[in-house]
């Protein structure tokens, strides 16, 4: 039963990485001057998604819900499974929304405060953004070190062994909402509140910046209707991009870590989460390639050129055969 979704997961990981490599090619070759510095931000997303795909392929996380316990462990095939591996992997998921919010800030400044756009070429500002991003990853990883196991370790190990026919000792990150005596684990509850608060806060910031940008695009009088339309399309593309990690990462994440407090049985949902999480870099790339006209037309142009070259080659071979 587990081999089938695992095979799909591997295919999705490879496809996601390839799609983002293709996106990098399209950005490098077909970005118009109107995109300006934004193409570098799009390249950052593509690179981040490639890293996320590789990290997922290496870690292969597996989630379990048992009563009041949530647990995740790496089903790693190419490296030694460890608690540190799953912590590092999980902390990387602070990046998608952080980078998206940088994009929203860029779009907002582009309309409301265009004089600040030059900051995105400023080395101190870039260093600040990188430092904050690295700090967010480190903070998330540090919080996860407080996650442990008060109950259920033996049952988790047994269920993992039954499902995957291998052992994975000492490679678990768990959230036990109740201890062995049935008492609430207040540390775990506070961790859940902090994790959920950080995720919801990121979403709120994205909604705030996107709403303000939509408003200022609509209210702007100093820019042409054509430019307004282009800015609106780029913002819609960014909103669609943002919806991808919300649906594929944050909703599954919130469901997995929050449902054990009520001991909810989510059925096959924990088994499907790795597929959802693995797919989000692919959807990210597809949204950009489909919605942004430069890359959509560039991809179609590249496909047409390839087909024409193939037809010419076939005609040449046919002519030689004659």
TrEMBL record:
InterPro entries: 7TM_GPCR_serpentine_rcpt_Srj, 7TM_GPCR_serpentine_rcpt_Str
Coiled-coil ranges per UniProt: none
Domain of life: Eukaryota
Protein name: G protein-coupled receptor
Species: Pristionchus pacificus
């Amino acid at each position: 039963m587990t081999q089938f979704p695992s095979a799909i997961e591997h295919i999705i990981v490879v496809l996601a990485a390839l799609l983002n490599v293709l996106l990098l090619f399209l950005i490098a070759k077909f970005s118009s001057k109107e995109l300006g510095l934004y193409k570098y931000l799009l390249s950052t997303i593509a690179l981040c998604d490639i890293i996320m795909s590789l990290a997922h392929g290496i870690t292969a996380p597996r989630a379990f819900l048992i009563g009041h316990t949530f647990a995740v462990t790496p089903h790693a095939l190419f490296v030694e499974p460890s608690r540190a591996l799953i912590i590092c992997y999980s902390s990387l998921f602070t990046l998608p929304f952080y980078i998206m919010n940088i994009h929203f800030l860029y779009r907002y400044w582009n309309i409301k405060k265009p004089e600040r756009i030059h900051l995105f070429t400023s080395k101190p500002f870039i260093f600040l953004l990188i430092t904050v991003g690295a700090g967010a990853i480190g903070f998330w990883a540090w919080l996860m070190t407080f996650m442990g196991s008060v109950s259920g370790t033996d049952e988790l190990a047994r269920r993992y062994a039954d499902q995957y026919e291998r052992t994975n000792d000492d490679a678990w990150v768990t959230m036990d909402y109740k201890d062995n005596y049935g008492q609430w684990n207040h540390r775990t509850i506070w961790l859940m509140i902090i994790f959920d608060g950080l995720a919801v806060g990121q979403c709120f910031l994205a909604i705030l910046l996107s709403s303000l940008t939509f408003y200022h695009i609509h209210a702007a009088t100093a820019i042409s209707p054509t430019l307004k339309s282009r800015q609106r399309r780029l913002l819609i593309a960014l909103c669609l991009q943002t919806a991808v990690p919300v649906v594929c990462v944050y909703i599954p994440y919130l469901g997995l870590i929050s449902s054990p407090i009520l001991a909810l049985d989510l059925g096959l949902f924990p088994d499907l989460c790795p597929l959802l999480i693995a797919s989000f870099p692919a959807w990210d790339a597809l949204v950009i390639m489909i919605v942004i006209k430069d890359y959509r037309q560039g991809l179609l142009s590249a496909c047409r050129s390839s087909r024409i070259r193939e037809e010419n080659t076939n005609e040449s071979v046919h002519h030689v055969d004659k």
